[in-house]
Amino acid sequence: MHPSSAVLDRPSLPPLPRSRALGRAPFAVGAAFAFAVVVFAAGGVFSRYVADDYCSASVLAQHGFLGAQEFWYLNWSGRFSFVLAIDLLNALGARTVPLTAPLLVLAWVMVSAAAIQSLLGERFSRQQSRDWSVLLAVVLVGATLATSAALWEDLYWQTGAVTYLLPIILSLAFAAVVGRMYQAAQHRHLRWLSPWVLLGAVLIAFACGCSETAMTALATALGLGLVVTAWRTRGVERRPLLVTLSVAFVTA
Fold first, then answer.
1. Which of 52, 169, 3, 179 is nearest to 101 (CA)?
2. C-alpha–C-alpha distance, residues 177 and 207, integer Å
3. Is it the case that residue 185 has pLDDT exceeding 50?
């Protein structure tokens, strides 16, 4: 018998049984990252006023809420979203400082999960899509916090968190809005002009108003996204996406 025929005549091996432990591995990884995210967020309860926090609180006390908006615009920067957010927090008092990091991290995970779920679309069942979006969101947030070069400034310092982390959250919320619009347009449940377009523009406006860095990054990303959408997208979802990205790009 020819050796090759002997190999071909061998019975095929039965498939390996699927391990339950292997099937649960992604969720074990997610649980580990979730624990890390909780630890990072819990560290914020030890935060207090520091550095620029005293400056913004002092200006608010001297000029009042509306006066503080005018003061910072004329004497420092046009970061209207940052000034508005930090003065709202200062108006509520120093008790908001320990809560800033936990609430921002929670919002970060939620909008990340919403954005990822909109990207997953109908590839999975509703329950699977929800589970995987939360899992990936926790991994994304946990990995980002673990590799941050300036965690204190980005998360635990209230002024820094509003400047750097808040625009990320608002940008991800915009991504979730665009994903939902894309799904609705595919099912012909969306007109090219809808309240979602206005919501997306508002989210981008407030994200860009937090810092010049956010404005530059978002304007670049939206411009590239607009070009790619115009080049690659066809079908009923083309017009709603082009209108949404165009309005957001002009807003940025």
1. 169
2. 14
3. yes
Which residue, chain included where needed, has tokens 């090759």?
4
How many angstroms separate the CA atoms of 222 and 200, rounded? 12
- Segment 32-51, tens digit of pLDDT: 888 988 999 999 889 899 88
Distance, in Å, from the CA atom of 45 to the CA atom of 99, rounded to the nearest integer, reads 6
End-to-end CA distance of the chain: 75
Q: pTM of this prediction?
A: 0.82
pLDDT bracket for residue 188 (50, 70, 90): low
- Nearest-angstrom CA–CA distance, 174 and 26: 27
The full 3-state SS of the chain, as one line of letters, equals CCHHHHHHHCCCCCCCCCCHHHHHHHHHHHHHHHHHHHHHHHHHHHCCCCCHHHHHHHHHHHHHHHHHHHHHHHHCCCCHHHHHHHHHHHHHCHHHHHHHHHHHHHHHHHHHHHHHHHHHCCCCCHHHHHHHHHHHHHHHHHHHHHCCCCHHHHHHCHHHHHHHHHHHHHHHHHHHHHHHHHHHHHCCCCCCCCHHHHHHHHHHHHHHCCCHHHHHHHHHHHHHHHHHHHHHCCCCCHHHHHHHHHHHHHHC
The arithmetic mean of pLDDT across residues 130-147, rounded, is 89
Place of tokens 């406006």: 205
Pick from 131, 96, 134, 93: nearest CA to 115: 134
